[in-house]
Amino acid sequence: MKIPMALLVTSVAAAAALTGALAQEEKPYQPLRPDQTAYLALYKEMVETNTTLSSGSCTQAAAMVAGHLKAAGFAASDITQFTDPAHPKEGGVVAILHGTDTSAKPILLLGHLDVVEAKRADWTRDPFKLVEEKNYFFGRGTADMKAMTVAWFDMLMRFRKDGTHFRRSIKMALTCGEESITAFNGAGWLAKNRPDLIAAEFALNEGGGGMTDGHGNLQVQTMTVGEKASQNYRIESTNVGGHSSTPIRDNAIYELADALVRVRNYEFPVKLTETTKAYFAMTGARRHDDVGAAMVALSKNPGDSAAVATASKDRTYHSLLRTTCVATLLDGGHANNALPQRAGANINCRILPGETPEGTRAALVKLIGDPRITVTLVPPIRPLAQPLKLDPKVMGPAEAVMKKYYPGVPLVPAMGTGASDGIFLEAIGIPTYGVPGDWTDPDGNGLHGLNEREGVRAVFTGRDFWTDLVRAYADEK
After folding, report:
1. Are 372 and 253 in contact (CB under 8 A)?
2. Are 372 and 390 contained in the same domain?
3. What is the pLDDT of residues 331-347, one digit of tens each?
4. Domain end: 311, 343, 378, which one?
5. pTM of the entire structure?
6. Conformation bin of residue 226: beta by default, left when phi > 0, alpha when psi is -120 to 50
């Protein structure tokens, strides 16, 4: 789930355009180098392989990847395809390019093969055909996240064909189930059942990236350092009901409505991580308004109530400051002429690193304050979100590659407020970072929506950026 950069760096878009690299999608990106042409063929093949949960097959995509790796010279023993018998179409693939130093911990390239559903009748173009138009690639998965997924195995193929040897081993895990909680989650399965296959010092994942001002000017790149955990809760009121001609105040729908109002009005305590402190300090300094000043103040003193109130006016900053819970689904009653016997709602919470699902449930119970209302965790219950450090071994090489590709554009650490498969790896001690490289426009490029697209220039520049970034990490002392 690639989070639109507009949801992470709105303040930078509000600031003056920064000098530096330009991402001008209106300019054609031609001609392609031979290696880029080969990558484009793989990108097309992957986008046109339907990997939705309803009608697609990640297993087919994983087999395609495995076939290309073998053709590039990978031994069969260095490629592992896996699936669950109960979910035959939701398989994945793991591969390794061996390093020269067996004492050096590997790095891991993580990606998901599955995509969000896409109905042809709703799209302007066929969502499962890669269409290049107006300097964008259109198609489901073009941005989330098949450009990066293909870049991962494409670079391993090139390294193997070229005979490139790195100090560290480079592992790659392409899995299914990231886009749906009802699917077989390959990253979670690997973490639980085959941690040896993915053991690494750290992993590189989706979630980072850049954003333009909507006019081709690249304004910022982010590195995702830590993320919130997503957890659903069901709150429910029950009643014996009765005939609607003789109503009483003890009504399940009214009780639920009162509880939802309390959830709406509640603010979880403000807590800043190392990542969000750096984010607020760096991003706030680029704003020349009251919100920017409040962000800088909060980076120094999270207890500044006036600064909290000012920064929280922005929905993105409000989310970064605290755990959040919001009602997303509602149901109740059983007949038009009967008092409701049951009313319930789904509450989706995004929980800060270091906090627990059970602790959040206890907070909901306390704030609702009604023993008639039950609050239960809705499976699946994901691992706890782990706070990550701004590790110089991770941030340093990224900053160096940034200077090469995007001079003058800042690299800002950011906390992910969505949910990625990185949380499963972090639970077994593999810090996972969402790397910079490509970029989106302020409208989010149709991620999870209609007519998803990725800029042609962003695709090819991002691919080259990621290749150099992996080279830097793989040879790092």
Report:
1. no
2. no
3. 999 999 999 999 999 99
4. 378
5. 0.92
6. left
